[in-house]
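Q: Could you predict the 3D structure of AP3A hydrolase?
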Amino acid sequence: MPVIVMNKTRLVSCLLALLLPLSSWQEEHSKLLLVSFDGFRWDYVNRVPTPNFRALMEEVTGLHAESHGIVANEMYDPVLNRSFSMEGSEVYDSRWWEEAVPLWVTSQKAGRRSGAAMWPGSDVAIGGVYPTHYVPYNASMPFEVRVENLINWFSGNEAIDFGVLYWEEPDESGHNVGPESPLMDVVIKDIDIKLGFLRDELKRAGLYDSINLIVTSDHGMTQLSHDKVIELDTYVSQDLYTWIDKSPVVGILPREGKLDEVYNLLKNANPNMAVYKRDDIPDYLHYKHNVRIMPIIIEVKEAWTLVQNKTGYFMLGNHGYSNQLRSMHPVFVARGPLFRAGYTKSSMRSVDLYPLMCSILGIQPRPNNGSLGNVRDLLVETCTTMPTPTPVSREPSYAWAVGSLLGTALVIGFLISFVKQVTERRQLPLPLSNKEIFKPLLQDELRL
Ligand SMILES: [Zn+2]
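A: Sure. Here are the predicted structure tokens for AP3A hydrolase:
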């Protein structure tokens, strides 16, 4: 089945790059549109008829979280001594984002133009730079309006070279009803219809055959159960720590001098959760070398939820679990003049998207965790060959920290969710009133 599954969701990311001098490859570049349907698991296309995804298939950062610095939707930075929440105004404080350089920033410094339709972080002045065109985040803006903005930006005398488009579904519904619910079918069908709208509009504008289109997501989604809940209050007093971020990867900031006491209370407390001191987090998670990662991290097994106690809203779907789980893998479909037609790849890493996109845009990648060599097979052989960038070191040294500041990327969009999990429904700075998102779901609920 011609879907390319991404590996390592938590590894997110990508986009971004270096402020290196330009050279000959800058003249050879193509247009690129990156579309992210939040939380679109790789196998959703098999659940219901998805003719627009199928049509694309037939036609047809890089940084880990520890490197780009957006390690969770809720964070504490001990150097800044500030907390970050997707729900608060601090999302507009560029210091949170500047361990990475968004691809649109690098692209613009290379003389390209960019446009962002609701891509997370695109309305933040990262390194003092916004996309050439962008719209302040507003969850209420319909998908169709976002597409129209992009079509306009890709047209005319000063057309953009790189566009990014973000849509909040099917993530919201996946959290609310769980990915295995039959109610998700109509949500997935609706995403396919939206993809169809995008394709039609690109065709109508005469862009469809010249643009390289990537449709992907930041992560998958797994079903939760009311029977699989761990209450942390059972094992450790809240007086001993501060709870940073939420299930399924919980950051624990112990009170001064309480690290070992809290760790020892938790380490063997429950067989369905793994408890790590930061330095002991497994390497395959690529989630260790950043001060925003808390001294103790708890990771629960798939389908389990970790809370302090059973109060408040309970989600039936979530992401942020191990990148080894297939349920965490997002969809990936691409088409365009630089992509091989009718080609299927069994899996790829999200971090390899960044060098892939840099190659398409003809810009020099910044140091990153991805590898163009891993994904070059997706491209036709004539695609521009880029110089090999310096890999980002994962050594927890001061030099590494400096390196990450120099380097990286963006991801921002992806970022946010890319990274881990998110637990809660995304509460955004503006009122979440996109009735359109929920319409199909609500209609189905009424039928039941
Ligand atoms: Zn989510």
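Q: Anything worth pointing out?
A: The longest helix spans residues 183-204.
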